[in-house]
Amino acid sequence: MALIQTENLTKIYGAGETAVTALQRINLQVNTGEFVAVMGPSGCGKSTLLHMLGGLDRPTDGTVTIDGRTLAEMKDDDLAKMRRKRIGFVFQFYNLIPVLDAAENTALPITLDGVPPADARKRAEEWLEKFNLGNRLHSRPDQLSGGQQQRVAIARALVANPALILADEPTGNLDTRSADEIAALLARVSKEFGRAVVMVTHDPRIAAYAGRIVFLKDGVVVDETVLESRSGDPARMLADKMRAIGE
User: Fold this and answer.
1) Residues 6+ apart with CB under 8 A from 117
2) Number of domains in the chain
3) pLDDT averaged over the chain?
């Protein structure tokens, strides 16, 4: 069953001669528990698509539907509640609060949403322990490596038990080993915890952790690849496709 679906999704910035079409008639469906990577050249609309899926921006035309609800038809308060309850966001930069420890950073979204602090911290610690950070609960961001900070950020995105995780270049600020660990963790979030994950990345090696790759160019979906088997070299195949699309 589709968790999130777009129909003819279009986003145009500006008007007249200065108008820029960031997305053009995008039709995309993501099912519960599916891991989808979005790739394409710089400026092709990847991040715009993610913002539209998360209700951070409204379409010029077309629709985004989550759980059967069309985002553009929702009132601002209802849309904000949808984002808090059903969507978790992960970004390239971890956006952790420097003066809070790992557990406090993870618990912050549900603490602000009214969950009693003790309950919020318990849920936060459970997620951090799942991500092998049980021994770093009291560590502040400056006491953690980049990979550990991103794991905290993913735990924070999951603490409200959302159905959908949107990740915008989540490995872009990490070394190769840490990047692979984060990509594998997002695959685990999809497979083990049953969350839909949509990840924007420019890195074919990281995209190869997903089950389906959507390629954008000039705001249009130009190709899709389903990775049914991990045999061969999927990262090289995806890199070849990226080069072909960029030509």
Assistant:
1) 107, 111
2) 1
3) 92
pLDDT at residue 229 in the model: 66
Contacts of 246 (CB under 8 A, 6+ apart): 41, 217
Quickly tell me which residue has 């949107």 as its tokens: 166
How far is the CA of 137 from the CAs of 91, 105, 235, in angstroms? 21, 10, 35
Kindly state the helix (H) or strand (E) to which residue 20 belongs, with its residue range. strand 20-31
Q: Is the pTM of this model over 0.90?
A: yes
> Would you state the structure tokens that stand for residue 32, as one six-digit string?
């519960």
Which pLDDT value is given to residue 2? 86
pLDDT at 84: 87
User: Looking at residue 230, what is its pLDDT?
Assistant: 66
15 Cβ contact partners less than 8 Å away, ≥ 6 residues apart: none
Q: Which residues contact 147 (CB under 8 A, 6 or more apart)?
A: 174, 175, 177, 178, 181, 182
CATH number at residue 49: 3.40.50.300
Joined tokens for residue 179: 């990047």
Cα–Cα distance list, 58 to 13, 73, 111, 112 (Å): 11, 10, 28, 25
Please tell me the distance from the alpha carbon of residue 86 to that of residue 70, in angstroms, as a whole number.
14
pLDDT above 80 (res 246): no
- Residue 109's domain spans which residues? 2-246
